[in-house]
Amino acid sequence: MTELPGAPTFAPPIDGVRTGGGRSAEPPRVIAVIGASGEPGTAGAALLRGVRATGAVYAVNPHYAGADLDGVPCVAGFAELPERPDLAVVAVPAYAVCGVAAACGRSGIPALTVIRAELTAEQHRRLLAVCRDHGMRLVDPESLAKAGVLQEDPA
Fold first, then answer.
1. Which interval of the chain is the signal sequence (predicted)?
2. Which residues contact 131 (CB under 8 A, 6 or more apart)?
3. Assigned domain for 92 exists
4. pLDDT for res 26
5. Residue 127 lies in a domain
6. Whole-number Å distance between alpha carbons of 126 and 132
7. Which has more pLDDT, 153 or 145?
8. What pLDDT is attached to residue 110?
9. Disulfide check for 64: which of 7, 74, 103, 134 has CB 3.0–4.6 Å away?
10. 128 is a domain residue
11. Residue 37 belongs to what domain range?
């Protein structure tokens, strides 16, 4: 995986969702891509090719459990991950975002970012509440792109 020497740490959380008293976090060592896909042209497939961690990247999708997606091992759920991610990159339909965020929180994942989900105002409010309830950081995808953690799909 690509090292991130000197890269900025996570940007300040959006909409006031923060953990650790607002302290900066280290760049993510372990990343889980939730909603990863083996289907070309999907957000989940593009993310697997564009995500960069200083350590491991894992795919989470029950439909592809046990498969290798572009060289990334895929598991059905958080319980099967060999280590706890520092960041969850969520690429699921808008209706599923809050449930996935709550599962991330219950699993102890400290930060998440949501990719390409057109949330309604109510879904956005619920997402913020879930993050606050679990002490998770909601990270702006643009800040991760600027830090080199998320890159455009090279394909």
1. none
2. 17, 101, 105, 112, 137, 138
3. yes
4. 65
5. yes
6. 10
7. 145
8. 95
9. 74
10. yes
11. 20-145
pTM of the model: 0.79
Residues pairing with 114 in the sheet: 90
DSSP annotation of 49 reads: H
The whole-angstrom separation of Cα 155 and Cα 86 is: 26
How would you label 117-146 residue by residue, b for 16+ Cβ within 10 Å and e otherwise? beeeeebbebbbebbbebebbbbbbebbee
Spatial CB neighbours of 153, under 8 Å, sequence gap ≥ 6: 46, 47, 49, 50
112: its two tokens? 């998440």
CATH code for position 73:
3.40.50.720
pLDDT digits (tens, 9 = 90+) for 126-147: 999 999 999 999 998 888 877 7
pLDDT of 117 > 90? The answer is no
DSSP letter string, 86-154: SEEEE-S-HHHHHHHHHHHHHTT--EEEE-S----HHHHHHHHHHHHHHT-EE--HHHHHHTTSB----
* Lookup result for tokens 């593009």: 46
Count of structural domains within the chain? 1
71 in any annotated domain:
yes
- Does the structure show a pLDDT above 70 at 154? no
